[in-house]
# Entry
Amino acid sequence: MWWSEKYEPVIGLEVHAQLLTRSKAFCGCSTKFGDSPNSNVCPICLGMPGVLPVLNKQVVNFTIRMGLATHCTIAPISIFARKNYFYPDLPKGYQISQYEEPICQNGWVEIELKNGVRKKIGITRIHMEEDAGKSIHEIDIDTYVDANRCGVPLIEIVSEPDMRSPEEAYHYLVTIRQLVTYLGICDGNMEEGSLRCDANVSVRLKGEKKLGTKVEVKNMNSFRFVERALQYEIERQVEALERGDEITQETMLWDANRGICVPMRSKEEAHDYRYFPDPDLVPVVVSEAWIEEVRRELPELPLEKRDRYIREYKIPQYDADVLTSEYEIANYFERVIKHLTHRTEEAYKLVSNWTMGDVLRVVNETHVSMENFPVEPQRLAEMVDLLVDGTISSKIAKEVFEEMLTSKETPRCIIERKGLMQINDPGVIGKVLDEILTRHAQQVEAYRSGKTQVFGFFVGETMKAMKGKANPKIVNELLKHKLQS
Amino acid sequence: MVQTYDRLRTALEQGTTTCEAITQNYLSTIYEKQHLNAFLAVYEDYALNTARSIDEKMKRGTAGPLAGMVVAVKDNICIKDRTVTCGSRMLEHFVSLYDATVIQKLKDADAIIIGKTNLDEFAMGSSSENSAFGRVKHPLKNEYVPGGSSGGSAVAVATGMSTTALGSDTGGSIRQPAAFCGVVGLKPTYGRVSRFGLVAYASSFDVIGPLGNCVIDVARVLQVIAGHDEKDSTSAYVPVPEYLIDIHKDITGLRVGLPKEYFDESLNSEIRSAIESAVNVLERNGVIVQEVSLPHTKYAIATYYILVTAEASSNLARYDGARYGYRSQNATDLYSLYVKSRSEGFGEEVKRRIMLGTYVLSAGYYDAYYRKGQKVRRLIRDEFQQVFQEIDCLLTPTSPTTAFKAGEKLKNPLEMYLSDIYTTSANLAGIPGISIPWGVDTNGMPIGVQLLAPQFGEPLLLRIAHFLESHRTM
# Structure
């Protein structure tokens, strides 16, 4: 960046993650996404007169999980507060959140940048809150409210202003997404809004200790938009400073279509949320025993998993990184491993190659989820076993894999049905070789006089004659032997 | 005809009357005394049908503990498929989707709910003049107020429109009207009775409680409505004792305190004499009466109005014209929908309190008001706890005056607020209090005396109240 010699951006992120609890935070309604509007509602989440909230304990469990995974201190007592503002999709006129005494504080996560450099990003706090409903604006007609989302539990993860580039912010967000999905507390889907991100951005001259005036950027609903919006906003601020202008504290909205940030409200227009402790809810008391229980049930986290893959399966770090980048991929990989008969390094590496290669290729092409991937782990494991014991060649394996994408048959059935079994018998292969060598005496002569490149020609001919089923290793060995004799 | 439940129950069991006849009787009184404006809705058909089905149960011997008790319900408590107006234009046509927990419990106990009583709008007031549907009149002198905010419930009980009634008490709204109307009013410990279905005014103060013509009647209602409710996180897990078991027990040796701060010059001299006579009765019967001090009492009203209005400003935010309730027809955009619906839908006192509460929670004022108020509240609570180390129960006036004339204090909110001076402390501290009638003033208006006990001290409170009631000298 042209400005990066002179200026340093300072970025902090506020990430909202929708929790995967079955019921809402303060009532028994379902949290299911995509049901018909206003079907998952009750007097409580609709804010009818006289109703009271009752905390869903699973919300606390999930939040403690995230707190532990990000090295936070879990408060023995935390308080729900009301954030007061008027909006049609906010039925009570306030959002139940946490303010002065959040449940998690003072944590950190480690991010890894493209160049392999690792950096710790501080977590200021993580708190629990409820979501608002969804306003659907029909331009020039009306605004409709869907209250299904009212009361769906969220956690807000607030970082320290520790990031110094949009790239760092991107990696931080990726790390947070990785964590919440590994922990099974959020599906991490930014496009559907189950993961949302706002940023606080300021810039300052390099070496300056004081923070510049911060601007809040909202509405960045994809990972790439976060990077692009921050890029845009940093450049806007730098340009303003270069002109000698002052940065005004305000809130901006990222406009993805135009690729710019547009002002939403100034500091003067900022809401006074009049936070105060919610008198309808008692303090959340978390005992040491509760924390320990959650800790015991914490799943293996991405970095731990990666290290184990390298140690246990002897796969390269690159493989381990790719496989653990997403919980679903790691999960698929491990399930394939579990079904293997040949428990060898060769087999593990093959599983890794197939998962990173053909499986992910198909996933990306067809947008199918790993969970619903047509080739179940069991069948891929069987195919790898067949590869390892030489029943099929890797060329045949490709064919078998393609076949499995559309059929429910096991690799063995496909091989038998299509007659794809590899021929390993030296006698059978030798016979075919003899015929070919006899038929192409001229080329044999050429080989023997030093034109060794014709070796490939004989292999090709043999494979053609044997419909690709000959074990290439044996073909090579026999051919070498026969040509030399 | 004013009657206690025990009499009715005996008559029912002896077969000399029926629930239907009793209900019919109350209904006649309600219609006869319509001018008092005590009711906002009367469930004639429902009440008679229920009465008849309970008569059947009586015959089969399966009737519940409150069979034949006719209950009037303050109109800020939700009953499924019935309007819950809260005395406000804002909710004039609003129909509740569910039963409050207390309503469910009353129904299960075979009480007969006869209708909804008038109140100060959203329970904000001390005179029942702040109702959008007209003021409630004092049954003895119609130009006087019955107290508030549960004025309709107090009048219903006092005039025989129902056996008992439910009210809600945020700063004295059960006890003060009970005192003004000459009935018994009990404010239970905060958390003793579920608030689920009580339209919130100030959540950390609000409590539902009974009004009746005798202490035993309110004890019976409390027995049914008390207890933990999984729908109310602030309801207590403390087990519910049998309130009638010890109610007749001797009170010799108990210690009763008179907080000296409650007997300053603002107290009406006739009420002071009433207290003195109650003290005499207690002392003659072996109770040790002593003066105690609650020095933070002078901050109670200020603290109360800071905290209560703060909570109210948030609790009443949901009435914005967007989803239900009153919606202004003059709105042109979202902002004006809010402003106009709320300006037109709420009455003066409600708007005053919303503004006060919004102010005390505002950035820059929160520490000076709300946070300070919370601290003083804690001091007041601790102070009560301290005093209850020395004594079992406090005896105080319920209100500094007897019923006043309608309109007299409407122009001066501060003066109106001071009529709660002896009652708000119990809500700040979350302790139970009861007001029982103790004679009348020279004007013939009832005087009430208040007893206060430690948290969950209802058994003792009811016992001393019952003793005083049965030894009434005035």
Summary: Chain B touches chain A at residues 76-78, 84, 86, 91, 94, 96-98, 100, 195-200, 202-204, 230-234, 310-311, 313-314, 316-318, 320, 322-324, 334, 338, 358, 361-363, 366, 370 (CB under 8 Å). DSSP finds 15 helices and eleven strands in chain B.
